[in-house]
Design goal:
Elements (H helix, E strand, L loop, with lengths): L11 E6 L6 E10 L10 E5 L4 H12 L11 H8 L5 H12 L3 H11 L2 H26 L7 H22 L4 H7 L1 E6 L6 H9 L17 E7 L2 E7 L9 H16 L2 E6 L15 E5 L15 E2 L8 H15 L11 H20 L5 H19 L5 H8 L7
Parallel strand pairs: 4-6, 4-7, 7-8, 8-9
Antiparallel strand pairs: 1-2, 2-3, 5-6
The chain binds guanosine-5'-diphosphate.
Length: 405
């Protein structure tokens, strides 16, 4: 395999040989990206071979025998790109999300994060905090007093208040970014036999849930992932919710109830116009539908009721649009900078808490104490973008990638 490198960034056809045995391994395309203009920032040679297990194994053997080469760990390329300053940590996470994205909205959000929108926002806050810190440290170095001078506090206080408020506002997003990343749960609830499983099947347009005329046959919760007009949604079929003496069934029912309670949206199904307006104990967004519309004369359907039929398809288009509208209201707007992970939330909460403590001690504080709180705030944001002290979290961030990314 020894030989000349192909020209930079030009696909070049090459015959790859095992240099010991001289035998041909494959005809492959080579792409050479010299440092620093590669994804990782290092010299990189991409080999596009024919992909069979045999060729991959032969190539791995030959390359693995070269002492200067080693197999990539999960996320190795992205980790190297981060360590070489090509990406910040939020961009690396955006790339992981893009690879995992299953709907258009998730892919668009991940692309925005990969393009650095999140990192730029957080870097801006960190910069503001570091400027405040620099002023305090200059004072610590040169001032005779240990207390914060009043003039300096008048300069710092509005800046710190503004940054803390911006972080608080970003945190107070109703978990929309996290919801978009992990998807929304819609629990389908209602009495046995009203047609919940049939409706889930009709919405999923495939036979996933068990559909039966016997009440309570679906003991557990059934999850069906759907792409609701580009939004990631999981339908939870809770068809088996009824009283029982069977401990296994009871456990299933308890789990189903807890899951349905925690769902983002509830789709309540009734099959009798007389029960349409009766309210259950639902919390949060709930859409009620009258199923089996094929059995009811239009005149018996209550005013404003959404009448559907899982079996004949009546009203399903309208139900689909209404569910999409409810889901969209819980998800972020297209151009929002999103907080997508618990890691982001906890780092920003730490930063906000440190700034709030700094504001509380305020001008009465001694310089060192105030500087320490502000330093903590800057560090918390630094950990978020990877600008500061992240060695211990790198493995966790990159372990979620697959090998070769
Ligand atoms: P679940 O217990 O609420 O999940 O109810 P299923 O989906 O198992 O449905 C119970 C029965 O109602 C089955 O026999 C279905 O075929 C029937 N069913 C469901 N939807 C409709 C509908 O829109 N019209 C009619 N006529 N029957 C339906």
């Amino acid at each position: 395999m020894a030989g000349r490198l192909p020209p930079a960034r030009r696909a070049t056809l090459a015959a790859l040989h095992d240099e010991h045995s001289g035998s041909l391994i494959d005809q492959a395309l080579l792409l050479y990206f010299p440092a620093p203009d590669s994804f990782t920032g290092e010299d990189c040679l991409e080999i596009q071979h024919h992909g069979s297990i045999a060729v991959a194994r032969l190539l791995a053997d030959v390359l693995g025998a070269m002492p200067e080469l080693q197999p990539a760990e999960p996320g190795e390329f992205t980790k190297r790109a981060f360590l070489n300053g090509k990406l910040d940590l939020t961009q690396a996470e955006g790339l992981a999300d893009l690879i995992e994205a299953s709907t258009a909205a998730q892919a668009r959000a991940a692309l925005r994060q990969l393009a650095g929108a999140q990192g730029r926002l957080y870097d801006g806050w960190r910069e503001d905090i570091l400027q405040a810190l620099a002023m305090l440290e200059a004072e610590i170095d040169f001032a005779a007093e240990e207390e914060v001078p009043e003039a300096l506090w008048h300069t710092l206080a509005p800046r710190l208040t503004e940054t803390a408020a911006a972080i608080r506002c970003h945190l107070d997003d109703g978990h929309k970014g996290e919801r978009l990343r992990t998807g929304l749960d819609i629990a389908v609830i209602g009495a046995p036999n009203v047609g919940k499983s049939s409706l889930v099947n009709a919405l999923a347009r495939r036979d996933v849930a068990i559909v039966t005329a016997m009440p309570g046959t679906t003991r557990d919760i059934i999850e069906v992932a759907i792409d609701l007009e580009g939004l990631p949604v999981t339908l939870l079929d809770t068809a088996g919710l009824r009283d029982s003496d069977d401990p296994i069934e009871l456990e299933g029912i308890a789990r189903a109830k807890a899951r349905a309670k925690a769902a983002d949206i509830r789709l309540r199904v009734v099959d009798d116009p007389g029960t349409f307006n009766s309210r259950g104990l639902e919390h949060g967004p709930t859409l009620t539908v009258l199923n089996k519309a094929d059995l009811w004369a239009p005149a018996s359907v209550p005013e404003g009721a959404l009448a559907v039929s899982a079996t004949s398809g009546i009203g399903l288009g309208e139900l689909w649009s209404r569910l999409a509208r409810e889901a969209r209201a819980l998800l972020p707007s297209e151009d929002a900078v999103l907080l997508t992970r618990v890691r982001h939330r906890s780092a920003l909460s730490d930063a906000e808490a440190a700034l709030t403590r700094a504001m509380a001690v305020g001008g009465a504080a001694d310089l060192g104490l105030l500087a320490e709180e502000i330093r903590l705030a800057a560090r918390a944001i630094g950990r978020l973008t990877g600008a500061f002290g992240v060695e211990d979290i790198l493995d966790r961030v990159f372990a979620t990638f697959c090998i070769g990314k």
